[in-house]
Write a structure and sequence with these properties.
- It is a single chain.
- By secondary structure, the chain is mainly beta.
- The protein has 2 domains: about 90 residues, Immunoglobulin-like, CATH 2.60.40.2190; about 230 residues, no CATH class.
- It has 2 helices and 25 strands.
- It starts with a helix and ends in a 9-residue tail after the last helix.
Length: about 350
């Protein structure tokens, strides 16, 4: 007597369809930070972040408030919304959590196209030269502050930030990257300057601070290396750190700061560097390997790209340059703080190189 009831229950369970998860909805408010009104963009891309950036959906021109619908959600994997406005990418992390709806506000800016020292200032310049047997590992960090008012983004498709690479001695280029408010280094393609020496990136400098980090290797065969370059930008202060601290340096016209309090670096400093001024000093000797300042796996050493001098175009990079850039910033900023203490202990008149 119970069999028909059981059969009916089985049929009923099969006949009821399993609910299908509905697509996610993202509501976006686009604001123009220059005018205070609604913002606009020529392209919108929603990425899924799962080891790499995978496009999920794309939209064309948008303005003000808009929606992205029918988003295929996969658990709680994070997403990234990218709005391209006037050729500049503006990014915003998106988290749907356990739901199907999310909101985001992205601020975009009008652009200007010429470098202006009254608006763009390189507030920090730090170079680190580390010996590793017959090569030098070089990390350079620049902090650029965009003080435009009203706020605008500096962007030029022909190139924005110029820097030097010693192509004759270059063994490998580890990374050229930029990081803004998020602190995440983003690789920056760099190309030779057509009208003279040096390289240039197409980095967009948004209002506020942007950190540029450049990491590479040069030959130190014979235990000697000469730096002979020029500054492309005005530098209020340039600090150069050497490791190990027993390296010898000949630096005419530079301040000799000596060994920092923790004994990891030797430093020299040059103030009020004008655009076009030479940057020259000679390094020699020193212990064969510097203290392990950068943890292994940070991007220095193995897997290096071929020298940029052989590419004839855009310079090459390691596959994952971000770790080297992060550690360069941490080390150089920490060292600068140490030298702030050191400078207070020794009068500047006793630190001048001849």
């Amino acid at each position: 007597m119970k069999l028909p009831a059981l059969t009916f229950a089985m049929v009923l369970s099969v006949g009821v369809a399993t609910p299908q998860p509905r697509g996610g909805i993202l509501t976006v408010e686009l604001v123009n930070g220059t005018t205070g009104g609604p913002g606009s963009g020529e392209k919108v891309t929603l990425y899924r972040l799962a080891g790499e950036m995978t496009p999920v959906q794309e939209l064309g021109a948008v303005s003000g408030r808009f929606e992205i619908t029918d988003i295929e959600l996969e658990g709680q994997r994070p997403m990234l919304l990218q709005v391209t406005s006037s050729g500049v990418n503006y990014n915003q992390p998106i988290d749907f959590g356990r739901g199907y709806e999310a909101r985001a506000e992205i601020t975009v800016y009008d652009t200007f196209h010429e470098w202006d020292d009254n608006v763009l200032e390189i507030t920090t310049s730090r170079f680190l030269y580390r010996r590793e047997n017959d090569k030098l590992l070089v990390d350079k960090v620049f902090v650029i502050e965009n003080r435009s008012s009203p706020p605008r983004t500096y962007h030029n498709p022909d190139g924005t930030f110029r820097f030097n690479l010693p192509t004759n001695d270059l063994l490998s280029l580890h990374s050229v990257s930029a990081s803004g408010a998020s602190g995440m280094p983003v690789p920056q393609p760099a190309s030779p300057i057509a009208t003279g020496p040096g390289y240039v990136t197409k980095t967009a400098f948004k209002p506020g601070e942007t950190q540029m980090a450049i990491s590479y290797e040069v030959s130190y065969s014979g235990g000697r290396y000469g730096v002979d370059a020029q500054s492309f930008h005005v530098l209020p202060e340039l600090l150069v750190f050497l490791a190990p601290p027993d390296m010898n340096v000949e630096a005419e016209g530079w301040e000799i700061l000596g060994v920092e309090p923790q004994g990891r670096f030797f430093a020299i400093r040059k103030s009020d560097v004008a655009a076009g001024d030479p940057i020259r000093f000679e390094l020699s000797g020193g212990s064969s390997v510097a203290e392990d300042l950068v943890p292994s796996g940070s991007g220095s050493g193995e897997g290096a790209a071929p020298p940029a001098a052989t590419t004839g175009g855009t310079v090459t990079r390691l596959t994952d340059p971000t770790l080297a850039s992060k550690w360069a910033v941490v080390i150089l900023m920490a060292a600068a703080l140490g030298y702030g203490l050191l400078a207070a202990l020794y009068p500047s008149s006793t630190r001048r190189a001849h």
